[in-house]
Amino acid sequence: MIGRAARVSDVRRRLLQTGICLGVMLCVDFAASAVHAESLPEALAKAYQTNPALNAERARQRATDENVPQALTGYRPQIAATLSAGLQAVRDLLPNNVVRTANLKPWQIGLTVTQTLFNGFKTANSVRVAELQVQSGREALRNVGQGVLLDAVTAYTNVLANQSLVEAQRANVAFLRETQAITQKRLNAGDVTPTDTAQAEARLNRGLADLNAAEISLAISQATYAQVIGNAPGQLRPAETTDRLLPRNREDAIGLAFKEHPAVMAASYDVDVASTTIRVAESSLMPNVTVQGSVSRSRDSDPTLGTFGTDQASIIGQLNQPIYDGGMAASQTRQAKEVAAQSRLVLDQVRNQARTAAISAWVANEGAKTAVSASESEVRAANVALQGVQREAAGGQRTTVDVLNAQQDLISARARLIGALRDRVIASYSLLSAIGRLDVKTLNLNTPDYLPEVHYHQVRDAWHGLRTPSGQ
After folding, report:
1. For the chain, percent helix, then strand, then coil, each to nearest 5?
2. Which pLDDT score is estimated for 3?
3. CA distance 409 to 393
4. What per-residue confidence (pLDDT) applies to 31?
5. Angle (nearest 5°) at CA 64 between 58 and 66
6. Residue 128: exposure state from Cβ atoms within 10 A (0-12, 13-18, ≥19)
7. 82: which strand partners?
8. How far apart are CA 458 and CA 469, in angstroms?
9. pLDDT over threshold 60, residue 128
10. 142 located within any domain
11. Assigned domain for 161 exists
12. Contact 202, 183 (CB under 8 A)
């Protein structure tokens, strides 16, 4: 009995040495890579700058900006120039059957300027619609930005969690491999039965399978990270939560979501767009007043004509009052009213979704705090239990399978703690997104904020030019 206790103590000592060596190796590796470790704010800044989905949405918004200068053309004159020239063969039959032929070279050049004076306020309402579309598009862009940043947080924390899980599983495999080797030696010494060896071998293979699964999950999360962030992950620093930026209670979260979430604000602008579109459609029933000025010069080399050229200049005012267009304008007006009613219902739906998302995010964030606290307590208790089982096994009161079970409980508790810490970070950022404040300015990221109004002002009053601003 004394010899068995001595051998068990030797097992504990060797396992402890193995654990210390692994811990030292991990600390050395961490210290060597800490200088080059990437933080979560740095990863978010990269995603904000390079993410293809976000850059594509910015390009869409720049295209939407062009609706405003297009609508403003209704206030501006339309100028057209015409030029015609050619060859004309003439064959005249004169009295006494005399035939005369000639080759003529007529040409004409003209310039016409048309200015709309009144079109039933169609231009003014069209400009208003275009401006509201720009506002709605900016909110849609902000919403996409929130989604990209949240995806970046998820990708970052998944890699961080899976890296920790792989290290934990490797330490577990080392423990099980050492346990299996020592059990085999004790079997050779006749101290344990073949059952103990089989149990140790089974747990080792289980640990190897768990390690393989963790490595697969890490590889997948690394690929997702590269897709979202723009580069492969290296050593990552622990991620912090955004508790300092979150509302104090659930009611505040709901209120902020109603007022500031980009999806709600975009839907509100869409209601204004639809309502103003009704007036655009109604303008087709109103009179249209234009003034047109033109100048032209023509030349003709026909010798039979009294003149060889004509110069003309004119100014013409025109009033056009639609009387009946087959019902087109009436149908378009009714259609616009139905679209406006639909947009109001969509706004109510989006507000309900924002309220639900805010409540869900708030509850998830509070639950994540509880999960982390419970997981930390579980890990501490599992550590104490493993040490107790090892001491009892040294005294002959526990078997090898008891030690293996205690080790499995500990590694499972550590895996749950790693997952809880990951969920805690994601939940805090999800709540920040649910209230509409997951952006560069709020997070104070070290990257210039993309300002869509810059491009808008560059093109709004542009009367000409084919080149896009800033080379875009």
Report:
1. 70, 15, 15
2. 44
3. 17
4. 40
5. 120
6. buried
7. 110
8. 7
9. yes
10. yes
11. yes
12. no
Separation CA 95–CA 113 (nearest Å)? 46
Expressed as residue numbers, the domain containing 166 is 2-76+121-286+330-465
Q: What is the DSSP string of 216-235?
A: HHHHHHHHHHHHHHSS---S
| 159-211: pLDDT as tens digits | 999 999 999 999 999 989 988 888 888 788 877 788 888 988 999 999 999 99
Model confidence at 17, pLDDT cuts 50, 70, 90, reads very low
Residue recorded with tokens 């709309």: 116
Domain identity same for 53 and 136: yes
Q: Report yes or no: 230 and 46 within 8 Å, Cβ to Cβ.
A: yes
pLDDT over 80 at 338, yes or no = yes
Q: The tokens of 171 are what?
A: 């330490």
Domain count, the chain: 2
The values of phi and psi at residue 335, to 5°, are -65, -45
> Residue 36: its pLDDT value, please?
64
pTM of the model: 0.84
Residues 156 and 280 in one domain: yes
Distance CA 165, CA 158 (A): 10
With tokens 């869509």, the residue in question is 452
| Collapsed DSSP state (helix, strand, coil) of residue 347 | helix
Which residues, 6 or more positions from 299, have their beta carbon under 8 angstroms from its beta carbon? 106, 107, 108, 308, 309
**Closest to 62 (Cα-Cα) out of 439, 449, 454:** 454
Beta-carbon-side half-sphere exposure of residue 160 (alpha carbons within 13 Å): 26
Residues 83 and 173 occupy one common structural domain: no
pLDDT of residue 447: 93
Which tens digit of pLDDT belongs to each residue from 56-106? 999 999 999 999 999 999 999 999 999 999 887 877 777 777 777 777 788
Q: What is the CATH number of the domain that holds 312?
A: 2.20.200
Tens of pLDDT, residues 357-381:
999 999 999 999 999 999 999 999 9
Say what the pLDDT of residue 19 is: 43
Decide: 122 and 74 in contact? Cβ < 8 Å.
yes
* Helices assigned H by DSSP within 66-121: 67-72
